[in-house]
Amino acid sequence: GAVVSQHPSRVICKSGTSVKIECRSLDFQATTMFWYRQFPKQSLMLMATSNEGSKATYEQGVEKDKFLINHASLTLSTLTVTSAHPEDSSFYICSARAGKYYGYTFGSGTRLTVV
Amino acid sequence: QQQVKQSPQSLIVQKGGISIINCAYENTAFDYFPWYQQFPGKGPALLIAIRPDVSEKKEGRFTISFNKSAKQFSLHIMDSQPGDSATYFCAASKRSGADGLTFGKGTHLIIQP
What we know:
The structure holds two protein chains of two kinds.
Chain A: E1 4-7, E2 10-13, E3 19-25, E4 32-38, E5 44-51, E6 57-58, E7 67-73, E8 76-81, E9 90-97, E10 105-106, E11 110-114
Parallel strand pairs in A: 2-11
Antiparallel strand pairs in A: 1-3, 3-8, 4-5, 4-9, 5-6, 7-8, 9-10, 9-11
Chain B: E1 4-7, E2 10-14, E3 19-25, E4 33-38, E5 45-50, E6 56-59, E7 62-67, E8 72-77, E9 86-92, E10 102-103, E11 107-112
Parallel strand pairs in B: 2-11
Antiparallel strand pairs in B: 1-3, 3-8, 4-5, 4-9, 6-7, 7-8, 9-10, 9-11
């Protein structure tokens, strides 16, 4: 089945620094990748949608300059949290689709803690 | 505006019992309705999904019932086991579209041995 690998699984960073999270589709080409954010005991909230080779589309209320998304190839998307602050601490999860009419495969998530 | 409403928020079921989680959606353009299981610290894993052209789908102990006119769908877990204890999310999307999934708020399920 489709597999999505997400790294790192957890990261701790100092306030003001930037953190990059990688999401790779291992056995399929992902035309579209999605980034979600999940706070403790809450649901997944879609942050942005990215298509290979084009700019990401951000959901309302998500700062595109803080959460930089790059989808440079059909198997890799990255989320960079810039100038991280403690309120950015959360569980970030990526998802990928091979195309329309295909299912959504999720990565294992990244626990970000900003101290 | 919450487009997918999920209930209950938490559920305790005895081992061997039936766990039932319900969801309702508002957007009639949705045509793909998956259920995900999530363990603490892990990403969600697809359990089972249904499209609106069928009213029920069964895979092992998991069954989705779908009522298009009521815009509701539910997950039934038969013979619930302690290993089923997890958080369950319903979701919806327009399969032909480029949008991500819209998730319900989740149900924390505990199966008591």
